[in-house]
């Protein structure tokens, strides 16, 4: 304890900060989802309380709720409430910079705005205002920060006399009265978190705790007045940091040269007058303080644990769950897109889209990875094959271990690989062969084949987008039909040796907004189906993979040499086609017309209405031998064996019997759609050659 009979310079114990891990998680979310590159100051709220233990000081703490809520959090993110005895709210400002260099270059001179007397008397917590500067490295999950607790400097400094425990300063009668009054003040919800107050002692030793605005009334009543505050410090010889600005305000407001202050501290939730301090402060330059032209110096930058005045850095990567880290890292690139390049990017649409991948080979592996890179989290892979030794080099989800012991099913191995790459993916596997036209079904196998048809129907119905990535042409027929019937987004990717085709199928021929009734307003399939009809917007429906064919799909695998049975293609082709297929899906999901969007070209007259992601073509065909790429459009054919209204209507009418007949009878689809008659007509068509002038050597002729 200081020498009670000697006057000495009043020294204050610095404020200390504590930041909850949740604050940094909230700041990261706020930065990515709302602030972007905005460096505007952010209002925050810290909390503190009186010292509660004779060995430990209290800190000013930042919690997750210290930051303002995002718009999506309004309903469930609690704000710091008033009336909590252990959470006295303190206003603050956060400056979060975009770069580490910007953080280091910030002016470190804290600015304590001039507090109007009425403002302090209305809300005394403004005397505790603080400042935080920070830089959030969201790639490494490290946060650089520095607290400032701005305090106005008294020059010359204040001196203190008779600093002693409150229990020794008050009379015996006053001690019990002070203890009771303080406990009553702290137990009332309206005053428990008011950090500055008056201790008014009447001539008969009755003590009351009053607001700062009552100071003149206390003087008129002839009461002895002490200026009290919630002291976070536990030291026996020093008052806490809040007293600095409090003294400055008292002198400027009431021109007092002698100030009795009361450092209120607690033990187990009750006033502890042995731990609390009372002292007499002397200020010698009161008149200069009242001169509003004189702006005092400001101090208050926090020192680190080693006593140095420098910033701090915390790294949360080691303490975070690896899955949570993976999710944050995966979303980082997508959220950064929205800062400048693509503000309209809808991550919710992408993360909620359910994608069905038919084929888990070279294309399927690449498409699955590209979908995850775009933020798609729900992926189902369908394949009946097993991983062979030739697969891992070309099919990026498999390793040599998947080939051993006869090979694991591709669909299952792919799902395991996706989970290893990104633990948060919701991937499912389905081991199933797709029934195909031209591959007749023996009677004993009809039941299992029809069950496969039902399963495929259910899978397509339960997903929002379907990728056709199988090896053979005929294996794409049934999915194309089912997608046209259900009006699902359908993307086809096909490979040649050095060429590829990627295309989106048009809407189904019988699609109707009345047919899609979704209970969930956020259901993606419902949103696609509720768009206007093709007839209403009067544009031609885009074709599917089979619309340009004049023959029905047949068996393309029998009587083939090894190089014809395998997908022999240049290794660089699959990643290109897969990436374009996924980009097509993202374009459809962000297009206002969705599945009904017409084919767009970069040179079209509608280029002025180009979407943020660019044009949305119908077909993309490329050649590696020429290093060329072109966009084409093909309209739906009325004779298409997969998506024409004739075929879809027949499927709706006959169901699985229709599919079984199409599988077992190769010419059935051609007869049904009129392709048989069309080919007969083409065969009987004769050309008349009309030569003008009778010159036999003439090079140009008209047909």
Automatic annotation (TrEMBL):
Q: Does the keyword Cell membrane apply?
A: no
Q: Which GO terms describe its biological process?
A: autophagosome assembly; autophagy of mitochondrion; cellular response to nitrogen starvation; piecemeal microautophagy of the nucleus; protein modification by small protein conjugation; protein transport
Active site per UniProt: 566 (glycyl thioester intermediate)
Q: Which InterPro entries does the annotation name?
A: Atg7, Atg7_N, Atg7_N_1, Atg7_N_2, ThiF/MoeB/HesA, ThiF_NAD_FAD-bd, Ubiquitin-activating_enz
All copies of domain THIF-type NAD/FAD binding fold, residue ranges = 337-593
Q: What is this protein called?
A: Ubiquitin-like modifier-activating enzyme ATG7
Q: What is its main location?
A: cytoplasm
| UniProtKB keywords | Autophagy, Cytoplasm, Protein transport, Transport, Ubl conjugation pathway
| Function of the protein | E1-like activating enzyme involved in the 2 ubiquitin-like systems required for autophagy.
User: What is the annotated localization of this protein?
Assistant: Cytoplasm; Preautophagosomal structure
Q: Which PANTHER family match?
A: UBIQUITIN-ACTIVATING ENZYME E1, UBIQUITIN-LIKE MODIFIER-ACTIVATING ENZYME ATG7
Keyword Transport assigned: yes
């Amino acid at each position: 304890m200081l020498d009670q009979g000697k006057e000495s310079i009043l020294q204050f114990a610095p404020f200390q900060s504590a930041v909850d891990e949740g604050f940094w998680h909230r700041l990261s979310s706020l930065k990515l989802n709302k602030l972007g590159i905005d460096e505007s100051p952010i209002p925050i709220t810290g909390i503190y309380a009186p010292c509660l233990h004779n060995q430990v000081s209290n800190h000013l703490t930042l919690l997750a709720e210290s930051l303002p809520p995002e718009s999506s959090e309004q309903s469930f993110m609690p704000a710091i409430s008033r009336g909590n005895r252990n959470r006295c709210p303190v206003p603050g400002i956060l400056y979060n910079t975009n770069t580490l260099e910007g953080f280091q270059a910030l002016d470190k001179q804290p600015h304590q705005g001039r507090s109007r007397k009425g403002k302090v008397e209305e809300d005394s917590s403004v005397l505790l205002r603080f400042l935080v500067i920070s830089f959030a490295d969201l790639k490494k999950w490290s946060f650089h920060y520095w607290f400032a607790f701005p305090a106005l400097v008294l020059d010359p400094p204040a001196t203190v006399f008779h600093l002693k425990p409150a229990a020794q300063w008050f009379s015996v009668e006053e001690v019990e009265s002070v203890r009771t009054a303080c406990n009553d003040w702290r137990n009332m919800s309206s005053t428990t978190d008011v950090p500055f107050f008056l201790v008014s002692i009447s001539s008969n030793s009755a003590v009351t705790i009053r607001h700062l605005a009552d100071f003149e009334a206390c003087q008129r009543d002839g009461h002895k007045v002490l200026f009290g505050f919630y002291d976070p410090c536990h030291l026996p010889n020093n008052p806490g940091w809040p007293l600095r600005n409090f003294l400055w305000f008292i002198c400027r407001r009431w021109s007092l040269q002698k100030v009795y202050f009361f450092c209120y501290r607690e033990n187990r939730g009750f006033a502890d007058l042995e731990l609390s301090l009372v002292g007499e402060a002397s200020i010698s330059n009161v008149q200069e303080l009242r001169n509003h032209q004189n702006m005092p110096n400001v101090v208050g930058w926090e020192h680190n644990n080693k006593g140095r005045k420098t910033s701090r850095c915390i790294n949360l990567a080691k303490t975070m769950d690896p899955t949570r880290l993976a999710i944050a890292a995966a979303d980082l690139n997508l959220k950064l897109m929205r800062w400048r390049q693509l503000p309209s990017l809808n991550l919710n649409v992408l993360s909620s889209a359910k994608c069905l991948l038919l084929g888990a080979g070279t294309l399927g592996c690449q498409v699955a990875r590209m979908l995850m890179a775009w933020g798609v989290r729900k992926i189902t892979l369908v394949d009946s094959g097993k991983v062979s030794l030739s697969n891992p080099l070309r099919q990026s989800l498999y390793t040599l271990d998947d080939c051993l012991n006869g090979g694991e099913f591709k669909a299952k191995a792919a799902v395991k690989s996706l989970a290893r790459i990104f633990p948060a993916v919701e991937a499912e596997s389905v081991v199933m062969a797709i029934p195909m036209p031209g591959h007749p079904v023996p009677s004993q196998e009809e039941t299992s084949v029809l069950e496969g048809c039902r399963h495929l129907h259910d899978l397509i119905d339960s997903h929002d987008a379907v990728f056709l990535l199988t090896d053979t042409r005929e294996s794409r027929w049934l999915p194309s039909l089912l997608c046209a019937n259900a009006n699902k987004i359908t993307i086809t990717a096909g490979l040649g040796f050095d060429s590829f085709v990627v295309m989106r199928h048009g809407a189904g021929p019988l699609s109707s907004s009345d047919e899609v009734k979704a209970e969930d307003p956020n259901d993606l399939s419902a949103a696609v189906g509720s768009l206007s009809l093709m007839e209403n917007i009067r544009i031609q429906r885009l074709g599917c993979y089979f619309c340009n064919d004049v023959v029905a799909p047949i068996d393309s695998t029998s009587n083939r040499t090894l190089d014809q049975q395998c997908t022999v293609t240049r290794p660089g082709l699959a990643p290109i086609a897969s990436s374009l297929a996924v980009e097509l899906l993202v374009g459809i999901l962000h297009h206002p017309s969705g599945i009904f969007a017409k084919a767009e070209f970069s040179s079209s007259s509608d280029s002025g209405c180009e979407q943020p992601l660019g044009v949305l073509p119908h077909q993309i065909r490329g050649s590696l031998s020429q290093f060329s790429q072109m966009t084409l459009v093909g309209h739906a054919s009325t004779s298409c064996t997969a998506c024409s209204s004739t075929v879809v209507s027949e499927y709706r009418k006959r169901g699985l019997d229709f599919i079984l007949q199409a599988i077992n009878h190769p010419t059935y689809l051609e007869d049904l759609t009129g392709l048989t008659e069309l080919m007969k007509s083409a065969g009987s068509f004769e050309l008349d050659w009309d030569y003008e002038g009778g010159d036999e050597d003439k090079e140009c002729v008209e047909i």
